Amino acid sequence: MNIQIISATLCSLISCMVLTSPAQQQPSPTISVEKIKGNIFQVKGGSGANTGFFVADKEVVVIDAKMSEESAKQMIGEIRKITPNPITQIILTHSDGDHVNGLVGFPTGIDIISHDNTREHLVKAFVTDQQLAHLPTTTFSDKLTLHLGIGKKDTKIDLLYFGPAHTNGDVVVFFPEEKVAFIGDLLFLGRDPLIHRAKNGTSFGLVKVLKALLSLDADIYASGHNELTTKKEIQDFVQSVMDKQAKIQTMVAAGKTLDDVKKAFNIETPPGGSRWPSLVEVIYLELTEKK
Ligand SMILES: [Zn+2]
User: Which of these, 1, 46, 4, lies nearest to 21 by C-alpha position?
Assistant: First the structure.
């Protein structure tokens, strides 16, 4: 099967590793904006993952940057229809290309905020001068709070890190007053989660992080590749990952091989290999590495 078709399909369905050549990109759905709550918005369509933005009194904070310069500019155009306030900060939920490659569509000089490890991934991945001009300018390890607005009526945005999961730089963007959280690619509904082992992601870490998300006082969760969700969907999702981990743990204890496990879960490797290992394979490797 054509590798470009495989990667383009995966990119549109899930997320890309950093950098996708223009030849791999396909026509994208029209970009659209949906109000989540108050001044918090979600942007869907265009190329790349869902993004978001928050309109403060004097500025705009963007969450993730789309996958292409064109889509980023379309997103900026949509923001302009709502407010003339300047974009002062872009928060990155993690380093995957469908969340960060659009950074080059934003003017330079905007404060780009990420986890320490996400910046490290981007230092490795970014090569052009234009990309390097859009490396994160502010990073943090556990928690960073932004205060936006004027005086006592400020809006607080908590940037939270709960440990490695999808990657080792997944940031949760939490609006405590509005009870809205942007969670990047920590959630995949209707399919297995993607774990980037090359970026030190882990399935057992994902379970821990998802439980931390459930303990947040949030009502609405916005993610990169799903509709808006509530705690119920996250609860079901974490349970499905834990069920798989338990089943594979039993098989590992019984001395089963990776092939046995893959067979039991009907995991087929496409001709030419997969772009990313399946969740089943990731769990097996994590369990056997611990021994
Ligand atoms: Zn991702």
Answer: 4
